[in-house]
């Protein structure tokens, strides 16, 4: 029995993100009618709000075979993508022509829908304004049908050429075929000669669509699980699994999160110590993941946890999140940028929220990262990092503080050779200059510091000498001209040398 029949899906994080992108586009410069209706229809179909009709009597025939052979089979398209996916067998052998349309109105998951619709949003908006709504709608219909039959034909040609007849069973869903056809049109109409793959990689506009065909590897070859490490001794997965992501959006989300955490922590810890911390966290998170899955399997007697396989850098990112909240001097953090929560509990709140909005996320992987971060802050994990850093850092001429749990007592420095590290706080001005201090304020503070240094390094002036200006008595002009500033600097130098 299909439990999904008549039920709608709860909008996930990817759907909410897509809705946000769509609203931004509407607010920015509007979205033409056909493009907007197509995207909204795809979303409503994915959420089960718009049901897809059965195509023809062959659906009933196929449902009968499935019940007889497999004992359980749902004809509702949302129940199983295999019901509507497009293949040579389904079209040529079984005459299921409804799949020509239904396969391209169905997506495998929410991120598949999100990626396709965001891509279609920008291509559709551009092309519909160029072609007009009616012509663009006709183009979409023709492209949808043509792409489906071309897919069937290409699979047949590959099967005959390579004698690998598994291609006849290859089954696909999604709107990406039509989107690639639209991509050819947009690059054809593009007056610039250069396009950018993923927004960064320059490539000739005529070849951009081919660059997007570059394949990804198989995550099952590198994903991390208890079985792969303990039973099969595939220790390379400890590293490879965390350097691999399921898709481009998985990579995007992780790297944006890592960007902000990494930037903050590397400036605080120094590049060498931060690199060592990343390596230790990567290894520790992997083995913690294996151990936690084993403990859950033994506790719940659900041994499927031993086969749970994950990829991605999110475990390490959660460990870094523990560090950033530990070092955060504010008592309040904001989950998703909006929900206030105590900084110490922010990482736990993020763990729960991510699991709610993305149930397919690796809860055990994220939990393992949190445990590693806590082991660093409150447990023994800081000691191996201290030992390794103490050995490695002198090779680069840097300085590492002795205690890793007292970073608030150290300030970052950068010397002219590009090295960075930490040194103890000093009461003098040169130990720390806020980045947001204006040039005039920095110059004033430097002048005051030079006066303090002069007091400590040479005999004090005679009682009849005028006193040095203090912070309260010194008036520095707010916006002096270059000539005036140069005159003042010369005057001060003369006063110091007199």
UniProtKB/TrEMBL annotation:
Residue stretches of biased makeup (Polar residues): 449-458, 471-481
BP GO terms, sorted: proteolysis
GO molecular function, one term: serine-type endopeptidase activity
Annotated region described as Disordered, given as residue ranges: 411-484
UniProt entry keywords in alphabetical sequence: Hydrolase, Membrane, Protease, Signal, Transmembrane, Transmembrane helix
Domain Peptidase S54 rhomboid: 95-194, 233-378
Residues annotated as transmembrane: 34-55, 133-154, 166-185, 271-292, 304-323, 335-357, 363-381
Keyword Zinc-finger: no
Compartment list: Membrane
One GO cellular component term: membrane
Pfam families reported for this sequence: Rhomboid (PF01694)
Signal peptide: 1-27
Membrane topology, as annotated: Multi-pass membrane protein
PANTHER family, A to Z: RHOMBOID PROTEIN 2, RHOMBOID-RELATED PROTEIN
Family: Belongs to the peptidase S54 family.
Name of the featured protein: Peptidase S54 rhomboid domain-containing protein
Organism: Medioppia subpectinata
């Amino acid at each position: 029995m299909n439990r999904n029949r008549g039920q709608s899906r709860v909008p996930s994080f990817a759907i909410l993100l897509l809705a946000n992108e769509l609203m931004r586009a509407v607010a920015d410069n509007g979205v033409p009618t056909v493009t907007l209706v197509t995207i909204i229809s795809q979303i409503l179909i994915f959420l089960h709000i718009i049901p897809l009709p059965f195509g023809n009597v062959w659906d009933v025939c196929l449902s009968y075979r499935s019940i007889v052979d497999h004992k359980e089979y749902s004809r509702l398209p949302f129940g199983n993508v295999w019901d509507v996916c497009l293949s040579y067998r389904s079209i040529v052998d079984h005459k299921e022509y409804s799949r020509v349309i239904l396969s391209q109105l169905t997506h495998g998951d929410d991120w598949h829908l999100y990626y396709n619709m965001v891509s279609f949003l920008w291509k559709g908006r551009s092309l519909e304004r160029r072609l007009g709504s009616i012509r663009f709608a006709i183009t979409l219909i023709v492209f949808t049908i043509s792409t489906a039959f071309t897919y069937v034909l290409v699979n047949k040609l590959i099967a005959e050429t390579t004698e690998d007849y598994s291609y006849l069973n290859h089954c696909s869903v999604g709107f990406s075929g039509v989107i690639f056809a639209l991509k050819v049109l947009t690059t054809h109409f593009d007056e610039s000669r250069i396009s950018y793959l993923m927004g960064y990689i320059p490539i000739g506009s005529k070849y951009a669509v081919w660059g997007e065909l570059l394949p990804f590897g198989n995550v099952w070859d590198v994903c991390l699980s208890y079985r792969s490490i303990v039973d099969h001794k595939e220790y390379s997965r400890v590293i490879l699994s965390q350097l691999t992501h399921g898709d481009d959006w998985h990579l995007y989300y992780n790297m944006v999160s890592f960007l902000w955490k990494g930037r903050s922590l590397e400036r605080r810890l120094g590049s060498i110590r931060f690199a060592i911390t990343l390596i230790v966290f990567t290894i520790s998170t992997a083995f913690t993941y294996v151990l936690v899955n084993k403990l859950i399997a033994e506790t719940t007697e659900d041994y499927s946890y031993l086969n749970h396989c994950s990829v991605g850098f999110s475990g390490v990112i959660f460990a870094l999140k523990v560090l950033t909240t530990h070092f955060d001097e504010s008592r309040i953090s904001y989950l998703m940028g909006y929900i206030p929560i105590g900084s110490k509990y922010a990482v736990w709140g993020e763990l729960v929220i991510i699991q709610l909005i993305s149930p397919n996320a690796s809860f055990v992987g994220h939990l393992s990262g949190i445990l590693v971060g806590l082991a660093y802050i409150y447990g023994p994990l800081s000691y191996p990092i201290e030992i390794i850093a103490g050995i490695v850092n002198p090779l680069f001429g840097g300085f590492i503080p002795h205690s890793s749990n007292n970073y608030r007592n150290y300030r970052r420095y950068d010397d002219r050779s590009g090295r960075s590290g930490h040194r103890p706080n000093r009461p003098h001005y040169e130990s720390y200059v806020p980045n947001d201090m204006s040039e005039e304020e920095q110059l004033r503070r430097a002048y005051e510091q030079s006066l303090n240094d002069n007091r400590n390094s040479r005999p004090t002036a005679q009682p009849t000498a005028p006193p040095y200006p203090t912070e309260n008595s010194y008036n520095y002009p707010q916006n002096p001209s270059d000539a005036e500033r140069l005159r003042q600097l010369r005057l001060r130098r003369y006063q110091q040398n007199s």
